[in-house]
Amino acid sequence: MSPAPKPTLERNPSSLERVPLCWGHRGASAAFPENTLASFEAAIRDGAEGIESDVHISADGEILVFHDPRVDRTTDGTGRIATQNYHGGLDQLRTVQAPHQKIPLLRETLDLLMQPANEHVLLNIDVKVDNDPERLFTIMKDIISSYPDFETKLAPRLLLGLWHPKYVEPAQRLLPDVRRAHIGMSPALARKYFWDACCTFSMSFASMVNSEGASFRDECRKAGKEITVWTVNDRREMIEATKWGVKAILTDRTKALLELRHEMEQDWDKVAKETSSLFSWTSFWYLGIANYLISSWEAYLLTKVGGAFYPVPPSPTLKPVAAPPPVPAVVAKVGA
């Protein structure tokens, strides 16, 4: 499979200056089993500049790249990850979807990123709320620091995605070289609990469509904060997110997004006309009331599993975090 053409803006200039980065949501998960090395490799082959994954800890202290707390949905096994050993147990499982794959470890995923051909690829690590922050970040610190020159060659390419404020202080203390992002659906919660501690806000696409989302996007732009949106598989949503100027789009359909980016490069003005100022009215899920209901339910689940939200006091001794290495970036001019 040949990779999608990369944006160059050399042949047919348009009003497009740059496009959002393409981050494979659980890899190229529309075509391969999610959160597997095969899926990550496919996303990179397609041309994605980043991949997104999730982590859980096994009973024997291994960090697995897996979305659910249980293995039932996507593998031939059953039960919770936290109560089972990886070695001699979870490592024997295979995905239900072909090509049948093992559950990868975080270390194996980082090995993939450290290959010379992949040293430009970013990794967005979604920290699930049932993880113990001290245990998770201590193990993660040991893994990351085991790589030569990790402070310059690996840590700047990692982004910790935090749903719950209980992870902020341990992340600052144990992983000071790794950037932090808030993952969420509510601009209000993002402002209240994560604004000072996070450089990036990874928000559900629908939460950024309505007026509250537009205001939040404007605040982030003025404050120098980056926005990424998930999970965007629809062409029109990809175009709209590009108009917003988001840093990255998380998608299951990496090849489709990269092909659309090529179209944008060739004739952005034509592509931009596929969405209009009426876009926010094209789906019930884009309305403010819909996002309020969904984000309220999500907040309930987060507090049920992770405990009550609480403000995190700013740390006066934070170590400056290195910026990621430059990659071919992409955003439309404001007002496009």
TrEMBL record:
Secretion signal span: none
Superkingdom of origin: Eukaryota
Record domain GP-PDE: where: 20-261
GO terms classed as biological process: lipid metabolic process
PROSITE patterns with a match to the protein in the record: GP_PDE
An example molecular function term from Gene Ontology annotations: phosphoric diester hydrolase activity
The protein's name in its UniProt record: GP-PDE domain-containing protein
